[in-house]
Structures are given as structure tokens and as C-alpha cells.
Specification:
Layout (H helix, E strand, L loop, with lengths): L10 E5 L2 E4 L4 H24 L5 E5 L3 E6 L9 E3 L2 H7 L1 H6 L18 H15 L3 E5 L10 H17 L4 E4 L20 E4 L5 E4 L3 H10 L11
Parallel strand pairs: 1-3, 2-4, 3-6, 6-7
Antiparallel strand pairs: 4-5, 8-9
Helix pairs in contact: 4-5
């Protein structure tokens, strides 16, 4: 790309979760470090070392807990607490192996809603690499329209805190504008506009669309609710 257009700004987008140890033991701390490096940082650091990375795209949705799992054939000897891993193993086996999920509210994808993890990720990656950041994905699967407004307010507030602490963030892209083909189906409803596929793809605003428009227009954000835990 640089050879074709020297002034092009080139970056990569990484799907990054807030990674925490399942338990306060040294082996789980090691598992967090190894998983974070493998899933998030190794490719990024290779790109940065090339000298051609102008910005880092961050896709953020949730956090996971990671535990050490010293069994043969287990990648990195770690068990990451993704909702998809718990679904694949079944909740009983997942817990038996030492897996942990958080107790926060969850989206239609089964992902925990942890806005402060968004702030931690942004601040951590800015401090580590000093590469300008673009939030290339952030949003919520919310079919019944009861969570999107709070999700937006809390995550935009977390973004603002990270920027106030010094992180250089060039932009925020909500995932997504309209309901789309997502994770193998049209079922998850991430869109600011719903799409009725049975009525000529009719589109109507989803809960949160008006709020997002007001924030984009005015730069003013309602106060988020206080979370604990």
C-alpha cells in the first residue's frame, strides 16, 4: 500500500478482550500473559516493528478470565473463558476444568458487558505502543432493545476517560450501522437500524440510534449508571 500511495495511513484491526486471571495464583497470571501475547500482541508487535503501522484498530466487546490448564494438546496450556468456549464444552465441564465467567449482564451473544475493560484496553495499548488508536468496532447484540443505550453511554464514557488520561484516539466506529450477517446468521442484532428481511429490507431505528446521533452531533454524553463488581 505504501508503495502505491506514500501518504496512505495504514493500520490493522485487532479484536481485543480485557484479559483477567481466573484466580489470584501465579499460574493463572502466566496464562493471562501468554494468552494476551498470542491472541492480541504478537501480530501487532510484528507490524509495529516493520515501521509501517500508522494506527492501531481496536475491536472491543467484552472481557474474559483465563486459567492455566496443563493438559496435553491444550494450546498454551490455558483455558480462555470465552462464551463460545463455555458453549462448546458445556457449563459443567467448563467449570470442572477451572473455567470462569463473570457475573455481569450479558448481551445476546453471551458476552459480559464490562465498559471499564474498554478503558483498560485502550490505556494499556496506548501506553505500550504509542500508536494512534481507532476504535474500529464496539457495539452490542441487543434484539429486544433494552441494553443498547446504556451500553453506548457506558462505553463512550470509558473511551472519554482513556482519552482524558492521554490515549490518542482518532475515531470511534460503532458496530454496526444496520443489522447484518453476523457469526453465521442474521440473528444477532447489532445494528443502530433494524432490517426487516421479510418486508423488502425495511429499515427502522433501533433503541440507541437517536442517542448516538445526538452524541455525534453535540459531543455531549449523558451520565452513565454506576457499576460495581
Amino acid at each position: 500500500i505504501k508503495e502505491e500511495r506514500a501518504d496512505a495511513r495504514v493500520g490493522i484491526a485487532q479484536n481485543i478482550v480485557d484479559v483477567e486471571p481466573a484466580r489470584t495464583r501465579a499460574s493463572d497470571m502466566d496464562a493471562v500473559r501468554d494468552w494476551d501475547s498470542f491472541m492480541h500482541r504478537r501480530l501487532l508487535e510484528l507490524a509495529i516493528s516493520s515501521g509501517s503501522l500508522d494506527f492501531l484498530g481496536i475491536n472491543y466487546y467484552t472481557r474474559i478470565f483465563v486459567t492455566k490448564l496443563p493438559l496435553p494438546g491444550v494450546p498454551l496450556k490455558a483455558l480462555p473463558g470465552y462464551a463460545e468456549v463455555e458453549k462448546a464444552t458445556g457449563p459443567w465441564l467448563f467449570r470442572l476444568l477451572g473455567g470462569r465467567r463473570g457475573d455481569r449482564a450479558r448481551t445476546d451473544m453471551g458476552w459480559e458487558v464490562v465498559p471499564e475493560g474498554f478503558e483498560r484496553v485502550i490505556r494499556s495499548y496506548w501506553q505500550a505502543y504509542k500508536v494512534p488508536i481507532v476504535i474500529t468496532e464496539n457495539g452490542v447484540a441487543d434484539g429486544d432493545g433494552t441494553r443498547r443505550e446504556a451500553y453506548l453511554v457506558e462505553h463512550l464514557a470509558a473511551l472519554h476517560r482513556a482519552m482524558a488520561a492521554g490515549a490518542r484516539v482518532r475515531g470511534y466506529l460503532h458496530w454496526t450501522l444496520v443489522d447484518n450477517y453476523e457469526w453465521g446468521s442474521y440473528t444477532p442484532k447489532f445494528g443502530l437500524f433494524h432490517v426487516d428481511r421479510k418486508k423488502g429490507f425495511e429499515r427502522r431505528p433501533a433503541a440507541g440510534a437517536d442517542l448516538y446521533a445526538r452524541v455525534a452531533e453535540t459531543g455531549e454524553l449523558p451520565e452513565p449508571a454506576v457499576r460495581t463488581g
